[in-house]
């Protein structure tokens, strides 16, 4: 696997079905595991966790 697409993971408006209506661009959504969940994911070995790009 060379790439992983993530839908928006930042905190979005309540009830958002798509996540593109971000209300807090500095916080990972609690519904998706918050920052702790993101850090746990990033600690996993392998190519998906080796590079992060926000573009």
Beta-strand share of residues: 15-25%
How many helical elements? 1
> Which ranges are low-confidence, i.e. pLDDT below 50, for 5 or more consecutive residues?
none
Instruction: Name the structural class.
Output: alpha+beta
Strand order of the largest sheet: 1-2
In terms of quaternary structure, the protein is single chain
Instruction: Give the tally of structural domains.
Output: 1
Order of helices and strands: EEH
Shape: globular
Protein name: (1-4)-alpha-D-glucan 1-alpha-D-glucosylmutase domain protein
Keywords: Isomerase
GO molecular function, one term: (1,4)-alpha-D-glucan 1-alpha-D-glucosylmutase activity
Organism: Mycobacterium kansasii
Short description:
Keywords: Isomerase. The chain is an alpha+beta fold and 55 residues long.
What are the key terms here?
single chain, 55 residues, alpha+beta, two-stranded antiparallel sheet, 1 helix, 2 strands, globular, (1,4)-alpha-D-glucan 1-alpha-D-glucosylmutase activity, EC 5.4.99.15, GH, (1-4)-alpha-D-glucan 1-alpha-D-glucosylmutase domain protein, isomerase
Describe what you observe in this structure.
With about 55 residues, this protein is α+β, with helices and mostly antiparallel strands. It is built from one helix and two strands, in the order ββα. The protein has one helix spanning about 35-45; strands at about 10, 20-30. A two-stranded antiparallel sheet has the order 1-2. The model has no long low-confidence stretch (mean pLDDT about 80).
């Amino acid at each position: 696997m060379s790439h992983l697409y993530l839908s928006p993971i930042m905190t979005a408006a309540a009830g958002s079905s798509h996540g593109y209506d971000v209300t807090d661009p500095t916080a990972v959504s609690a519904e998706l595991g918050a920052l702790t969940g993101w850090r746990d994911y990033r600690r996993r070995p392998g190519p998906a966790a080796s590079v992060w790009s926000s573009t």
